[in-house]
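Subject: Sanity check before I submit

Could someone independently write out the structure tokens for this chain? I want to compare against mine line by line before I put it in a report. The sequence has 199 residues.
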Amino acid sequence: MNAKGLDPAEGGGAADSPLGSRNENPAGVTYWRLIGEDLRTHDGDVFAQGFWALFNHRFGNWRMGVEAKILRAPLTLFYRIWRKLVQIACGIDLPYTVKVGRRVKLEHFGGMVLIAKSIGDDVVIRQNTTFGIRTVDERGRNPVIGDHVDIGVGAVILGDIVIGDNASIGANAVVLDDVPARAVAVGVPAKVVKIRPAD
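---
Independent answer below. Compare away.
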């Protein structure tokens, strides 16, 4: 933990990063409406593993809005136990320090390590996907996933890069460079094969 009582490993952030120091749930929607929206995004399936991972994530952020540390402490303990259970039972690691937008769908489940700086609105992420740093020397240099991004099975997105809005990442692609908006990126290492026209 750093001087602020935060664990940099939870979001891959640097020790002096403000990540995790406040509630970063999307603005303009209440906590329970956000949970309801996440449930609808997961087809109303209350047993969907992706829904539970997001529920835990939203709770982790919500508790940071409780300013009194003595009141927040039991919530933090509950969050950490719940997060570990989600990792074990669902195979999904999504720490609260990742800023996650609305209507994100964790399609299927298992093998998901989703440690990004941020994930935008209306993103679909499939199983066996990894977001993270390239090396341990690059802590905090995690990717940014834009809005309306579609990410295929087994994709790996690493480093301080940006996946543009409306981009598509192919199955098993290894993405190490920025991907422009509306682009389709496939392969190992991933290359942009097409940029779709704007609507």
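---
OP: Matches mine. For the report I'm noting this point. The longest strand covers residues 191-195.
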